[in-house]
Amino acid sequence: AKRSGNTHVVTFDRCLFERSARQFQIESALPDAIAKGDIEIYYQPIIDTQRGCIAGFEALSRWKHPELGMIPPPEFILAATDSGHISKLTQYVLRQSCEAFRPHLANPECPYLGVNISVSDIYTGDLPNRLAEILKETGMPASRLILEVTEDMLLHDENSAIEVLAQIRSQGVRIAIDDFGTGYSSMGYLSKYQVHLIKIDRSFVQNIATSSQDQKIVRAISSMARDLELSIITEGVETTEQSDLLRKMGCLLQQGYLFGKPQPAAQWAVNANR
Ligand code: C2E
Ligand code: CA
Ligand code: CA
Ligand code: CA
């Protein structure tokens, strides 16, 4: 964080020190937090605006550190990556969320579960086999699970990413490209990695009501997705105006504060059964 200090040098040094002290504190508390179940999973609904029902939920991690308070997920995900704990964290999130999903399985209109995975999960930690174990142990049908990966994740080592995603797909688990449009998007990726779904980033939705540029981009992504027979979800929908515009552009699956913030599983079950 940038601070208004007297001199840049002092400010910079202090920030660097504070940052690394904080990061150290986060990294060292993380293994225990995972083991003790201190990281809570919240669920945000994805709405099928055409049918007016919940199409799915995205699992989002929440960690309240005893001294530091709520830590933003990207910060502890990065700490987990740097300290080598990311595959443990991902497996924890997968297991917890698949278990939380159990009450929904009896529902004939059972929604799907979206779980975020990180770049290191693709390249370390044997994700396909761990995933198979978790599905078996929790009784979660593979067809109900979608793993969300970001475009940048696919840049590092193309061949191993293709291989890992193919192993995941062969179990019946679907793949979504998260934050679509913000990274090194290329149409080539979509067929090369055989993704099922793209999530249009919130940055395109934010100003959709006023920016004709953003409208054009979303319209283009939407028609491309239709041609490729991919589903699209638009993220960060906050107003009915945005929602209506997006629907007209063919973006029927929507996620955002307009429909619901991420909530603990207990609340989610109540809302979904209403
Ligand atoms: P993401 O996957 O793009 O998740 C969407 C983020 O947007 C979430 O932030 C969600 O709370 C927020 N959001 C949803 N609707 C709205 C809206 O209408 N307006 C605004 N302003 N924000 C909205 P969150 O939970 O803070 O997570 C941030 C990022 O951290 C996620 O971005 C994801 O990349 C990462 N993350 C969170 N949980 C996990 C996890 O369990 N594993 C991994 N690998 N990454 C995670
Ligand atoms: Ca996501
Ligand atoms: Ca996203
Ligand atoms: Ca994001």
Helix percent band = 40-55%
What small molecules accompany the polymer chains? ligand C2E, calcium ion
Which regions have little confidence, pLDDT < 50, spanning 5+ residues? 1-6, 270-274
Q: Termini separation (Å)?
A: 43 Å
Q: How much of the sequence is in beta strands?
A: 15-25%
Q: How large is the radius of gyration?
A: 20 Å
General shape: globular
Number of strands: 10
The biggest beta sheet, please? 8 strands, mixed, barrel
Q: Find the structural class using helix and strand composition.
A: alpha/beta
Strand order of the largest sheet: 1-2-4-5-6-7-8-9
Helix count equals: 11
Order of helices and strands: HEEEHHEHHEHEHEHHEHEEH
Q: What does the average pLDDT come to?
A: 89
Report on this structure.
Residues 23-274 form the EAL domain. This is Bifunctional diguanylate cyclase/phosphodiesterase. The structure is a single chain. The protein is α/β, with parallel strands linked by helices and 274 residues long. The chain is built from 11 helices and 10 strands. It has helices at 8-36, 73-82, 86-100, 119-123, 127-138, 158-170, 187-192, 202-206, 212-227, 240-248, 265-272; strands at 39-48, 53-65, 69-71, 112-116, 145-150, 174-180, 197-200, 231-234, 253-254, 263-264. It has an 8-stranded mixed barrel with strand order 1-2-4-5-6-7-8-9, surrounded by 6 helices. Strand 5 (145-150), helix 6 (158-170) and strand 6 form a beta-alpha-beta unit. Helix 3 (86-100) runs parallel beside helix 5. Residues 1-6 and 270-274 have low confidence and may be disordered. The protein binds ligand C2E and calcium ion (CA) (3 copies). Residues 178-179, 199, 201, 235 line the site of one calcium ion (CA).
